Amino acid sequence: MSPRELIVLGTASAVPTRQRNHNGYFLRWGDKGVLCDPGEGTQRQMSHAGIAAHDITTVCITHFHGDHCLGLPGVIQRIARDGVPHDVTVAFPNAGRAYFDRLRWASEFQPTDVIRPHPVAGSTPEPFGMPSITALPLRHSVPVYGYRIEDPSHVRVRGDELAAAGVRGPAVGQLKSTGSYVTDDGRTFLLDDFSDTVQGMSVAFVMDTGVCDNAVELACGVDLLVIESTYLESEREYAQRYRHLTAMQAGRIAAQAGAKKLLLTHFSERYTIDDGALFAREAATVFSGPIVVAHDLLRISLR
């Protein structure tokens, strides 16, 4: 399998700290690269992580609060400066198109024509890109979309069982292409009886939202859920007021969605790196799977 890896570029929420850069997540997906929510300092964090502008094929902006987008001008200008030859799709909420246009042309630079804006709108925008990316609206103080990145599902034939039944070679190819195979002696074999549907690898990004059904839908069965957990339960009142999640609420979304692994991020500046265990402990009260508390430049293999 081609490499699949998440590199965390930043883990702060509205205010960066000495320990945490603003948001930023780079998903290496084979020869593709998805950059999600580049906040301030993203270019420098990319250098620390060994990510080149040429590695980026898609940028996903969940919304236009500064900690999720103010690194975009620098990233676009770096794409131009480094002469990236391939198209780079930039997805963002259409309701914030004016902000995208300002960020796209935030300062004087030698422009590039490889940037391809992809505004998303409505309750169920069409999937786009390669790998396939699905966007769904979440619940925040401004229009915000979460993103799900995934490979398509595929059918895996149980060849050993077919071989034991005497079906081999070209007959297996016919079974896979037509869904059935009839032997010379009249026996019928159906693909559904000798195959399994294997779900493709998937990652969901759920940022800046209150509890909502679409957060669960985006995360349904994903291999990795990257989700904001701005507060602990002791500050749940703030979470409700500003439409954010606590670590326990993030864990509950992961549990309801059947996510395989949970990555907590986007922490309020009131917390330090030493508080990470508190976030993991809260989420673990409702989610039994693996829990990772993100820190800057963390790398997670998705093999």
UniProtKB/TrEMBL annotation:
Binding, Zn(2+) 2: D67, H68, D208, H266
A GO MF label: 3'-tRNA processing endoribonuclease activity
Record key words, sorted: Endonuclease, Hydrolase, Metal-binding, Nuclease, tRNA processing, Zinc
Enzyme class of the recorded protein, top EC level: hydrolase
Catalytic activity: Endonucleolytic cleavage of RNA, removing extra 3' nucleotides from tRNA precursor, generating 3' termini of tRNAs. A 3'-hydroxy group is left at the tRNA terminus and a 5'-phosphoryl group is left at the trailer molecule
Enzyme Commission designation: 3.1.26.11
UniProt xrefs under Pfam families: Anti-Pycsar_Apyc1
Bound cofactor: record note: Binds 2 Zn(2+) ions.
Needed cofactors: Zn(2+)
Binding site for Zn(2+) 1: H63, H65, H140, D208
Active site: D67 (proton acceptor)
Superkingdom: Bacteria
Keyword Membrane: no
Subunit structure: Homodimer.
Protein purpose: Zinc phosphodiesterase, which displays some tRNA 3'-processing endonuclease activity. Probably involved in tRNA maturation, by removing a 3'-trailer from precursor tRNA.
Family according to the record: Belongs to the RNase Z family.
Family matches, as NCBIfam families: PRK00055.2-3
HAMAP family, A to Z: RNase_Z_BN (MF_01818)
Matching PANTHER family: ZINC PHOSPHODIESTERASE ELAC PROTEIN 1
Protein name (record): Ribonuclease Z
Organism ancestry: Bacteria, Bacillati, Actinomycetota, Actinomycetes, Mycobacteriales
Name of the gene this protein is made from: rnz
